[in-house]
Prior knowledge:
Layout: H1 2-14, E1 50-55, E2 64-70, E3 79-85, E4 91-96, E5 99-100, E6 105-115, E7 119-127, E8 136-146, E9 149-160, E10 165-174, E11 178-192, H2 195-216, H3 226-238
Antiparallel strand pairs: 1-4, 2-3, 3-11, 4-10, 5-10, 6-9, 6-11, 7-8, 7-10
Amino acid sequence: MKRMLCSLGLALCAGSASPAAASAAVGDQLLFNRGFEAAADATNTAPAGWTAGTWSTAGPTPPTVTFTWASDAHTGNRSARVEVSGYTDGDSKWVPDPVKVSGGAYYTFSDWYKSNASTAVSVYYETDTNADGVTEGHWANLFSGIPAASEWTQYRTGFTMPAGAIRAQFVHLIARNGWLQTDDYSLTEEGRSLAPIILAMHDWGTGRLKRQQKTSGIRAQPRGHSTAAARQASARHSG
């Protein structure tokens, strides 16, 4: 894991700017070359905006990993494929250029994939909590049981960026023997998450009710008993 964190950290710090790196509005696509159609350079051997990433602690006998800019695709003419054999540990994936993110905002990620083994999706993000230019890298594993699929299948998930997050990379990875092929990625910001607001409102309402009950001396009655008690009181007064 340490080796992967270092390599992705370098990619985030030294990665070249892409059109997606500019400020984007809510709902805009954040990834550059998300369908793998554009070439990185005139050699036409790799997709622009993407890097082959793999790590292992197996020392002199790491797994064999083959990255391919494939000529079959979900849409268009290109996709990205990674194949692993002799697996021991670690994972392998195509890594997109980092994109700017905002802490507290919710992001929706999806892609289309085929594979002959279970795969996973994770997000690497950097935070600058003190706004002093000193960043820290973090991993969040979003789902690790994405089933194999012989036909193109869409996977979708979401993630609320923690406070202080400034850059992120979502990756679809394989961590076992087998192959994974991906295409037509999507990453959009959906705006601020309402979860903290809803939780705060719930806590405020619960606390206010408890304070009122304590002040008035009223105790909450078990559900189902209040109606019966009201009927008994009404019967006594009417009699």
